[in-house]
Amino acid sequence: MTIKIEHSWKTYLNTEFEKSYFQDLLKNIAEEYENHTCFPKKTDIFNAFNHCAFDDVKVVIIGQDPYHGVGQANGLCFSVNDGIAHPPSLINIFKEMETDLGIPYPKSGNLTPWADQGVLLLNATLTVRAHEAGSHQKKGWEQFTDSVIKTISSEKENVIFIHWGGYAKKKRKLIDTSKHTIFESGHPSPLSANRGYWFGNKHFSKINSQLEQVGVSAIDWKLP
């Protein structure tokens, strides 16, 4: 499997790509795509990086797995392709955004405009077998994406890391909190949101306020 990733990341990740675990991961994932239906499509696996160059990263939102339904996943965490019904977690993300910022609920669930502004929408696992949640966990993706988080933490300053839910919160240990900001809340999934752990976190306005405090342009969260 060929790695098609935006060139600025190669400066920081080439040594990771050469490690034996990553080479084994690529072989394993190539076999999965050959023998099973997997998501996202091969050309979208590294979309989070291809829409957000290393130098442009302002915000990192950490997800767990790609969506495993047909046509949903597009390589960005929580995002779906245009024309696809919004999954429950994304509905709650948009409801919170609507309440927090007073902007209309969008028709499209495609979060590419966020990524293009410097929001790295990073799933811990970048691929999944169709209709089998978590099927590509513990194959090496988590080691790779942990390395990505640690690299951003060590090489950049004033990045905002967003941890929604318990899984994302475990990534706190990878981040130097003396020079980066972390915002945490419950997960936007209905189970967590309906228990009161999601709505009202105001993360969208908090992110923009924090960016402006350090002299960085805010994110335009409005979507089509």
UniProtKB/TrEMBL annotation:
The Uracil-DNA glycosylase-like domain, residue ranges = 50-211
Source species, domain of life: Bacteria
Q: What biological-process GO terms show up in the record?
A: base-excision repair, AP site formation via deaminated base removal
Which GO cellular component terms, listed alphabetically, does the Swiss-Prot or TrEMBL entry include? cytoplasm
Q: EC?
A: 3.2.2.27
Q: Where in the cell is it found?
A: Cytoplasm
Keyword vocabulary terms for this entry:
Cytoplasm, DNA damage, DNA repair, Hydrolase
The reactions it catalyses are: Hydrolyzes single-stranded DNA or mismatched double-stranded DNA and polynucleotides, releasing free uracil
Name the Gene Ontology molecular function terms of this record: uracil DNA N-glycosylase activity
Q: Where is the active site?
A: D65
Q: Main site of residence?
A: cytoplasm
What is this protein for, i.e. what is its function? Answer: Excises uracil residues from the DNA which can arise as a result of misincorporation of dUMP residues by DNA polymerase or due to deamination of cytosine.
Q: Which family does it belong to?
A: Belongs to the uracil-DNA glycosylase (UDG) superfamily. UNG family.
What's the name of the protein? Uracil-DNA glycosylase
Q: Which organism is it from?
A: Winogradskyella epiphytica
Protein's gene: ung
